[in-house]
Design brief:
The chain is α/β, with parallel strands linked by helices. About 40% of the residues lie in helices and about 10% in strands. It is built from twelve helices and ten strands. It has helices spanning about 30-45, 60-70, 95-110, 125-130, 130-140, 155-165, 185-195, 225, 245-255, 265-275, 290-295, 305-320, and strands at about 5, 10-15, 20, 50, 80-85, 115-120, 150, 170-175, 195-200, 280. The strands form two sheets. The protein has an eight-stranded parallel β-sheet with strand order 3-4-5-6-7-8-9-10, with helices on one face. It has a two-stranded antiparallel sheet with strand order 1-2. Helix 3 (about 95-110) links the parallel strand 5 (about 80-85) and strand 6 (about 115-120). Helix 1 packs parallel to helix 11, helix 2 (about 60-70) crosses helix 3 and helix 9 (about 245-255) runs antiparallel to helix 12.
């Protein structure tokens, strides 16, 4: 497993991390034993970055990670959590007082005195652009509540605004074969500024797993059922904002371009991780098989797979099938 520097923190994190939204049970039920097994399999495969949030299962994801790491002293895992969705996403709610309350809650959930990395959880643009936001975050660092901070964003414009701030450690943005706009400006800007990029939703909510068909259904408590048109939150969070049927057609083309011994999810994760400027890719996993397969995709970075050839296919499929329908702000 390759490791890369995490901004200017002095830490390194694995090229393939683990996103833990699913451990909060927002993707259907995941029991405690399954959640712990996913974490164990990921660490055993070389993963050193867990990404979570205070609202995943109303804290369940953080608590699960906290209990897991408590039994592994000297674990070397960086936990990146997120805050800002416990209240309505209105600029007036992003106050120093609320920042302190949210981080204190996450510290309790994770069982730590200092949070490794806290990211604002896709806040309004006005919050990302406000100097007061970063003053409040700097105060949390100075007080020892957090070691560093970053921003998770919905749009490329938001990413560029966050990258321009001097103490931002990372920007988390949706990046996958269905979402290529960040390649144009965001990745070069981040590399120039020494800001880490976490690529989230790398498998487009599982669509790029290659396992779905037009007949696939999801449970009622799965956002892939209730948020396909953005009914609950930003549509881009579900299947990266692409129409399900259009996504299936694109997946068929991408899969057909791969050698028999390389799966589409492995190729996708390796392709993203190889992009200049990307620090870590953070796919989710609901079981140990998925967790191990995700981490094993890092082996493709070390040769034996023509990443340049796959890159050409990704860009061609995107241009022909998806570009016209992707919202321009993504």
């Amino acid at each position: 497993m390759q490791t890369r520097p995490l901004g200017a923190t002095g830490r390194t994190v694995s090229a393939i991390g683990l996103g833990t939204w699913q451990l909060g049970a927002d993707w259907g039920a995941v029991d405690d034993a399954e959640a712990r097994a996913v974490l164990t399999a990921s660490v055993d495969a070389g993963v050193t970055l867990f990404d979570t949030a205070d609202v995943y299962g109303d804290g369940r994801s953080e608590q699960t990670i906290g209990r897991f790491l408590a039994g592994r002293p000297g674990h070397g895992i960086t936990v990146a959590t997120k805050m800002g969705r416990r209240l309505d996403q209105e600029p007036e709610n992003y106050t120093q007082e609320n920042f302190r309350a949210w981080t204190d809650r996450s510290r309790r959930n994770l069982g730590v005195d200092t949070l490794d990395l806290v990211q604002l959880h896709c806040p309004p643009t006005a919050v990302i652009e406000s100097a007061a936001t970063y003053d409040a975050l700097d105060d949390l660092v100075a007080g020892g509540a957090i070691a560093s901070y970053g921003v998770s964003v919905e749009t490329t414009a938001q990413a560029l605004a966050a990258i321009a701030r001097p103490n931002v450690t990372n920007v988390q943005i949706i990046l996958n074969p269905f979402r290529l706009k960040p390649l144009d400006e965001v990745l070069p800007a981040a590399a120039d500024a020494g800001v880490s990029i976490f690529a989230r939703v790398p498998l487009a909510s599982g669509l790029l797993s290659g396992r779905y068909t037009a007949a696939t259904t999801f449970s009622a408590d799965d956002h892939r059922s209730y948020n396909r048109r953005g009914e609950a939150f930003d549509r881009g969070e579900t299947f990266s904002g692409v129409d399900f049927e259009a996504g299936l057609a694109a997946v068929a083309e991408l899969s057909a371009a791969l050698p028999e011994d390389v799966s589409l999810p492995a190729a996708t994760l390796a392709w993203i991780a190889a992009l200049p400027g990307v620090t870590s890719v953070i796919p989710g996993a609901r079981n140990t098989r998925q967790a191990t397969a995700n981490a094993d995709a890092a082996a493709l970075l070390d040769g034996g797979f023509e990443l340049d050839a796959f890159d050409a296919v990704v860009r061609d499929v995107y241009d022909r099938r998806l570009r016209a329908d992707i919202h321009p702000h993504w």
